[in-house]
Design brief:
about 1200 residues, alpha+beta, about 35% helix, disordered N terminus
């Protein structure tokens, strides 16, 4: 009954009263409908003196009831403060001017009502006067001294300062919400005032009861009912936070009572009844909880469920659904542990059935409550996760039941839900549980498995929706364990194999290793063949083991090291049975540390490299071979390897050997460990995309391979003799060193260039050369032999350089079964280091040619000599001579300083129709200096204990010093002295330091030899001698007198500025270098033009004109010159040009003969004196002095 009363008092009561005639009229129904339309009340702000903040009630349900509604006024059980009206309203309906009617009838009715309602505690009252809207518009007569009815009501009943009377002008025809605004505010104020006073009184009662807690006769159940009435009151006015606080405080008080072990107000811990294990946990109507509390007979089990249910209801009202799931899960786990202490007195599996049923019912309640709210984003994920935890809790109870009845094995993951220290007790109860599903699952294994799978799948679904992948995958593992137990090996193996891939990205190593171990165990139980799939599973397991040193390996009942050792042995056996090699990348079980410097083998071609191999497995690993690959520039690779038998646990020092490695600095590219047909491979050089996306910058491992001077070597270069115009070739020099070569294959490739090895030819025919598949084959070449040959190739004029990949494969006499292979990249410049420009000057029968030689790069070039020569056999009547002095010496061409060579060609028979050749002997300054350094170091190393080792170091140190400081270049070019700058000697031994000092002394004393020594390169450039149809020699001569034809002599009269000077212009014509040489009939029309020198000379006479030119003829023109100022003046120059030849056409236009004019007087100057005379100047000296 108490529960029914509590549920019916969920809203505020407001009573109404009026004259019986009004309440029975039809108009009252209209008024009641208008008042009901104003409800519920909204936006109510409650400021209580006992609370620090204002409480806002968004919406308050109000129930209008007649004042005389029957209520139980004498109950001693406090249910809620809302069981009585908080506000009483008396409604007056009369004309505002009917004062007489008010005085005789209405006033007494109001007074009787007022005396009744004011006698009630914690209730407010309000008088509502309703008039027609047109009544308020009427004004009283001037002589009418009586007041209005509303004013009489206010005067008679407003005894306090508070206004309790409201007048509303309303009619059904003009119903508007605005007319009720004042009434609504008065109702809000009245309700809040009454509620505040009622709450204050009840809180005082609660405090008084709590303060008597230690006194005899105090009862917790009575205190609970009293305080709960506050919670119900707050809930009735939609103050759910305050209501929840009351239950929170009640829970805290219960814990205090529990701690004091004073539970005399309760019954037993639990009094199991039929349906307790399967009833909905959060239902407050399944039992008469309040009656049990009032009777002091409620069990702790029922009391805690009722308290939880009320808390969850209030949480649901506030939309905090997530907290409901977590609170219920925590309660089930905690109280379930208490019930297990008395499990022997309960029906068998009562605790499991109760937790299972309660968890599922809470999920259903949460879904129902959540449908009234909009949950999204992170809150939705949290909500689904909480439901997943409840469903997993329910599934856990099935683990306990299944293990107990024998449906599940006593091993993980099923046994992990059972407490090994507290096994299920022997039940003494004769009762049974009521959950039909559990009862069926106990006796029927198939029903149990179906129930188990369904519960697990529901939990997985919730975890997946919540984004909790780890929890979902863990439950997948339990399903795989169930399949394994039921004999569904194929399904279990597929699940166990697929799960680790989901764990690895999240670093869930323990789960990953456990699932992999279960997959391996399932594979054994299933008796499957240990194929590549099994090997991959095992390798993944070993990876997870090594990553955490086995600390997170979940293995039960077996030693970890013994378990891993057995797996590794099986791995080696399975690898030996594979049909093909199986590569596995980047496995952490083995790692390598490589030395940064390789060592020359000394007695044979090849290098040794020290490596440290770390076996992180806890056992010996049987292996066959270990190898690493170093990557150099472009496609250069070298492979170091060593055979193995076993790889001990921990670190092992090994020495790897590479039979052929070109000297360079390499990057550790990859490494490989062979275990039968299984290949462990590691890539040490990451791709640029991976390196840029990595948070930590990867450091490449560099390995330096020293140069072995006695090993086979292949050098590529331009030929020492280059002749332009012929097919290009490249010089290949193969040095055998210490090796007697049985057979060597050399293959050249380059992008954009085609080599023609079939046309290759030896420089010295001392050895045989054969071409097979574009590879040049050399056979039976003794040691210390250099075999050089020329290989023609396609045109490379479009390239500045060729990048040539040289592949060499060879066998030696000492190791005929070992085939060595080298792949080297060489860059050979195709452009010549020098460029040649020519400038020609025609002088009669002679042609002067000036060749300017410049460097095409930043390097200096040493020029030994340059010769201009005719073709073999010479040319008749042609004489070629250099114009420079003999013994000119070696010259250096720098980027800023070219070198000029001048030759003259004297032809007796006209133009030279055959091409000449310009031969230049040169070498690079670097080549010359390196040659000098090599000779000096050879002399210094005579008698040294290890000349080959020291030679490379000393030469490199000297070259590096010269490269870093170019101050020695100028002095070397003049004297030949090589003043080597100081070199850092921290990284060399004492003997090398002494050798460096000796070499520097000898280099400092070096002089250029005469004649020059060493090898020189030659370039032969064809030179075409140009044609010139007309060669004109112009000459301007000063005549002694205007009427003389004789040129001026040294004793001639002086020349003065402004004086007319007679001169003669002569133009001598020669066709010697043209195509018409010797043709006496040939004529050309020429035009001369004397240069205008307006600052120096005035030219008078025919200074421009045309004339007909013949071979050997001279054209003479008299002119007069006037010097404009005195001084040494150059005579005017004369330009001679050819005019188009009539009747001859070239490319559609009239032919124009070529012509060159040179000034015979070009270097001459004449002295012009200032004009002489007398000038008189009158200077005033002044007449007064002081």
């Amino acid at each position: 009954m108490a529960n029914a009363q509590a549920s019916s008092s969920k809203c505020v009561l407001v009573s109404y009263s009026a004259a019986p005639s009004i309440l029975s009229s039809a108009k009252w129904l209209q008024v009641q409908a208008a008042l009901t339309a104003l409800l519920p009340l909204r936006n109510i702000h409650w400021k209580s003196a006992s609370r620090s903040s204002i409480r806002t009630i968004q919406e308050l349900d109000v129930n209008l009831v007649p004042l005389d509604t029957p209520r139980d006024e004498h109950t001693q059980i406090p249910v809620t403060l809302l069981e009585k009206p908080l506000l009483n309203i008396y409604i007056v309906v009369c004309q505002n001017t009917d004062v007489e009617g008010y005085r005789t009838t209405v006033k007494k009715q109001i007074k009787d009502w007022h005396s009744v309602v004011t006698a009630q505690k914690n209730q407010e009252w309000l008088i509502l006067h309703i008039i027609r809207p047109d009544s308020r518009a009427q004004t009283a007569n001037f002589f009418q001294l009586k007041g209005s009815v509303f004013e009489k009501i206010r005067a008679d009943f407003n005894a306090e300062k508070r206004e309790r009377c409201v007048q509303v002008a309303w009619s059904p025809e003009t119903d508007a919400p605005a007319v009720w605004a004042e009434l609504i505010n008065k109702i809000k104020d009245g309700v809040l005032s009454a509620f505040d006073s009622a709450v204050s009184q009840r809180e005082e009662e609660v405090k008084r009861s709590e303060s008597q807690r230690q006194m005899p006769g105090w009862n917790f159940c009575t205190f609970f009912i009293l305080k709960e009435s506050l919670a119900s009151s707050f809930e009735g006015v939609n103050l759910f936070e305050d209501a929840y606080t009351q239950y929170d405080e009640l829970e805290t008080s219960f814990y205090h009572v529990l701690k004091e072990k004073n539970l005399s107000w309760f019954g037993t811990l639990i009094n199991p009844m039929g349906g307790d294990d399967s009833a909905p946990l959060l239902s407050v109507t399944k039992k008469s909880y309040r009656d049990l509390i009032l009777a002091n007979t409620i069990s702790i089990f029922d009391f805690r469920i009722y308290l939880l249910s009320r808390q969850c209801e209030l949480l649901a009202q506030r939309g905090r659904i997530n907290e409901i799931s977590r609170k219920a899960a925590a309660f089930l786990a905690a109280f379930g542990r208490r019930l297990r202490d008395i499990e022997a007195t309960l029906p068998q599996f009562f605790v499991e059935s109760w937790i299972y049923s309660s968890a599922l019912s809470v999920v259903g309640y949460c879904d129902n409550w959540a449908s009234g709210f909009s949950i999204a984003g992170a809150k939705l994920n949290s909500f689904n996760a909480a439901k997943g935890e409840l469903l997993e809790l329910a599934r856990t109870q099935l683990d306990v039941i299944g293990v107990t009845v024998g449906h599940l094995p006593i091993r993980p993951p099923f046994s992990s839900s059972c407490d090994p220290l507290n096994p299920p007790a022997q039940n003494n109860s004769t009762q049974t549980i009521s959950n039909a599903e559990i009862l069926k699952a106990i006796v029927d294994a198939d029903a149990f498995y179906k129930l188990y799978v369904d519960a697990t799948n529901r939990a997985i679904e919730m975890y997946t929706k919540a984004g909790r992948k780890k929890f979902a995958l863990r439950l997948h593992g339990s399903l795989a364990a169930l399949d394994l137990h039921r004999g569904h090996y194929k399904t279990a193996l597929a699940t166990y194999t697929s799960l680790p891939a989901h764990y690895a990205p999240h670093m869930w190593t323990s789960l990953e290793s456990f699932m992999l171990s279960r997959a391996l165990d399932t594979h054994d139980v299933y008796e499957q063949e240990k194929d590549t799939e099994w090997i991959h599973i095992l390798l993944s397991f070993l990876k997870s083991y090594v990553d955490n040193q086995g600390s997170e390996l979940l293995i039960y009942g077996e030693d970890k090291i013994e378990y891993v050792t057995r797996l590794v042995e099986n791995l080696c056996q399975a690898a030996s049975k594979l049909d093909a090699d199986l590569a596995h990348p980047d496995h952490p079980a083995v790692s390598l540390q490589v030395s940064s410097n390789a060592r020359i083998a000394e007695t044979k071609d090849g290098c040794f490299l020290d490596v440290t191999v770390h076996n992180r497995l806890p056992c010996v690993l049987h292996a066959d071979e270990i190898s690493i690959v170093l990557a150099g520039r472009d496609s250069e690779r070298c492979r170091f390897s060593a055979p193995l038998e076993t790889l001990q646990c921990g670190k092992t020092e090994l020495t790897l050997f590479c039979p052929a490695a070109a000297a360079a600095t390499y990057i550790l590219d990859s490494s490989e460990l062979r275990v039968a047909r299984l290949l462990f491979q590691w890539t040490h050089r990451k791709s640029p995309a991976k390196a840029s996306s990595s948070l930590r910058k990867e450091t490449h491992i560099l390995v330096r391979v020293p140069k072995d001077l006695l090993a086979l070597d292949v050098q590529l270069s331009q030929p020492n003799q280059v002749k332009l115009g012929e097919p290009p070739t490249i010089l290949v020099a193969v040095t055998t060193g210490r090796n007697h070569i049985l057979k060597a294959s050399v293959k050249l490739t380059s992008s954009g260039v085609m080599f023609r090895p079939k046309d290759a030819n030896l420089n010295k025919p001392s050895h045989s050369l054969e071409v097979i598949d574009n590879a040049i084959i050399l056979e039976d070449v003794p040691e210390d032999t250099i075999v050089s040959f020329m290989v023609p190739h396609s045109d490379t004029s479009a390239f500045q350089a060729m990048k040539i990949v040289t592949e060499v494969e060879y066998t030696t006499k000492t190791e005929p079964t070992l085939s060595r292979t080298m792949r080297m990249t060489r860059v050979v410049l195709t452009a010549l280091p020098i460029s040649v420009n020519v400038e020609d000057f025609f002088r009669g029968s002679r042609l002067f040619s000036k060749f300017t030689i410049s460097t095409t790069s930043h390097q200096h070039v040493r020029i030994c000599a340059a010769h201009l020569m005719a073709q073999e056999g010479g040319l008749d009547g042609v004489k070629i001579e250099p114009c420079a002095t003999k013994n000119r010496g070696v010259m250096t061409v720098t980027p800023a300083q070219p070198v000029n060579f001048l030759f003259y060609i004297d032809s007796a028979h006209g133009p030279v129709r055959e091409s000449l050749n310009l031969l230049i002997r040169y070498r690079m300054l670097r080549e010359e200096v390196e040659s000098v350094i090599g000779e000096v170091v050879t002399n210094v190393l005579e008698g040294s204990s290890s000349p080959h080792h020291h030679r490379v170091t000393v030469v490199n140190k000297l070259v590096e010093a010269l490269e870093h400081d170019a101050g020695w270049v100028d002095l070397y070019g003049i004297t030949g002295e090589l003043n080597v700058p100081s070199t850092p000697q921290d990284d060399v031994d004492e003997e090398t330091c002494q050798l460096l000092d000796k070499a520097k002394t000898l280099l400092n004393a070096h002089k250029h030899p005469h004649p020059p020594k060493g090898s020189w390169r030659e370039i032969k450039i064809p030179v075409d001698v140009p044609y010139m149809n007309v060669v004109a020699a112009a000459c301007v001569r000063i005549l002694a007198t205007p009427f003389s034809d004789i040129a001026s002599k040294e004793d001639a009269l002086p020349l003065y500025a402004g004086q007319p000077i007679s001169a003669r212009l002569t133009i001598n014509i020669s066709f010697h270098w043209g195509s018409s040489a010797g043709d006496e009939k040939r004529r050309y029309i020429l035009r001369y033009d004397v240069e205008e020198m307006v600052r120096d000379w005035l030219v008078s006479g025919p200074k421009r004109g045309d004339f007909t030119a013949t071979n050997g003829a001279t054209h003479t023109v008299p002119i007069t010159l006037i010097a404009l100022h005195h001084g040494e003046l150059a005579l005017p120059k004369v330009a001679v040009m050819a005019l188009p030849m009539a009747g001859e056409m070239t490319m559609g236009s009239m032919a124009m003969p070529s012509i060159e004019t040179y000034q015979i007087h070009g270097a001459e100057k004449v002295l012009v004196l200032p004009r002489g005379g007398r000038s008189t100047f009158v200077v005033g000296m002044g007449s007064n002095f002081g």
